[in-house]
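CATEGORY: protein folding

GOAL: derive structure tokens
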Amino acid sequence: MVSEEIIDIPPQNFYEVIVVGGGTCGLAVTARLCEDCPGSIYTEDEHQRFHWLRQRGNKVNLINHNVSSKTKFKPPGKNNTYIPRRKFQPSEILVLDIVSDSFMGQWNNQFHSCQIPYLRSPMFFHPDPVNVDGLVSFAHLSKRESPKDIMEIKNVVGKEYSKHQMKKLAKKNSKKFMKKSPVPSNDGENHDKPGIIDINMRDWKDFYRPSTPLFKDFCKDIIERYQLQNCVKKDEATKIEYGYITVTGTNETGKGFIITTANGDIYGCKICVVASGHRGEINYPIKPFENPHFPEGSCHTTHLFTNQVQFLGSELINKPRKSKSRSIVIVGGGLTSAQLAHVAANSGIDKIYLLLRGAIKIKHFDFHLDWVTKYKNVKKSAFYIKDTDEERFEMIQEAREGGSFNPEYYKKISKHVKEGRINLMKFTTITEQRWNDASKTWSLKLRKKVTSSNSVDDGHDIYEEELLESVDYIYFATGITANLKSLPFLEPIIKDHPIDTVHGFPCLTDDLQWNKELPLFMIGKNASLRMGPASANLDGARLGAERIGWYVQDLLSSGKLDWTCKSCNFCSSESFSAGSEKSLEAKLYTSSSDSETESDEEIEPTSFETRLKLASGQLNWYSLLENEE
């Protein structure tokens, strides 16, 4: 349902596209909309082919090259001329970000809080819409190929092993995988699937990780290339509605999005893209923490990344205690928890307890290697052809398997544990908690699973309890539960345009659109059911931006985003539907094109049309032969 009320939007607050979120996904989709010749999903051979086709233009018959010479190829467009895809201008796009007035604000906060020197993702994961090797080229051209700027991801590509060694390794891993044992996985075991990891040896250079400064400079280069410096405004979208809009001072009117912000501003747009990133229900998996005493007693990593709390900040240091020693608990088994523990150990915190509900998982990436290696298209195809979104969700869960350390941080944490700086507590949960208002500290009762020789024999787990006293602060690195309904700014859209969800993820179209009628798009984690387990990562940002960019630019080029004119007697704002109805000019042109096509068909039908008429009975063989004579 669309509100019948017409909202007046001043020209300075009206944009063709508004992107909610200025992170990596927001940058990827904004840059893609401003690029009319994308190519980041193509290989070098495909790039050469496209370049050859572009040079020759309409001289190349791509469709009817095997048909009779009498058949005429007619490219789309008026007078058989090619209509190029139109790109958006930076001035037509607004990006609303809750953290910063520039791109990557929350991203930079996260990397600063965790003091992350290198990205976890390989070099070919980035938001550049033009070249999949853009980051590699940038490092080469700027002469930043030293270990300071790029780090090799070892034991992934396999160039360290001979073919004979790889076969032995595969056989060894297969035996380990087949061996059944009730004992939990040993620490240090790689949780990527066993066997040979098939990777094209020619691509081994791609399996390097960029440093944080290198990736930051690369994103800055993308922003400057597309002149996106002034696109981002620091503000929070509090409500998104879909209704009729009139741009004051002009004759433009049509259906679009009305976006209200925390600063009290009201913006209008024709296309809206939600790239909200880490938004949703904060995951407090430990039941006793109904009152986490935020921010004086605990916080979640999302509070750190949005600058609501500083890691090891005043909430921890300014405790009402005489002793200068401090103790903290970090809950979580993902890479962020390891990074925070490493920073705390290097900062001199006396007692650091790192709590994991299970064993340590070690993986190079957030998902298994077979999603990024030589035969990744096999996994992606298997994902795309699933019959239901439930099956896709199960495949995502299988690929990600919860939080994991990468080998680099596993070594760092192991070193801190050996030196006594970190107390690593696996298979541990908090069963009871008590908050002391006077000292501003926690008393925590833990339940820890113990593995002994007796438990292996009888198949039963043995647990013991432990008490932690005077804990100054708790940092939860437990992630976020996907829940579309937890995004308050989408409540009007969800109410007026209901959408099916699976475990909190929306069931979007293949173009990442809310539905076929509503030009609202989602990218990032919320697009997981269409993009797969890499949706929330840099790879998903680029591929998702390509899907959205291609579809939206097609709407723009075909005139489907053109609005009606209030003074025109032949148009009505009530009958206009953005993305589904054509403008008056497009309707007139379509009618003209149809008549031209009909006359052309009467003069010289194509062989396909002739066969179609024969099959339908509109033409018989006798008449055809008579005409040939």
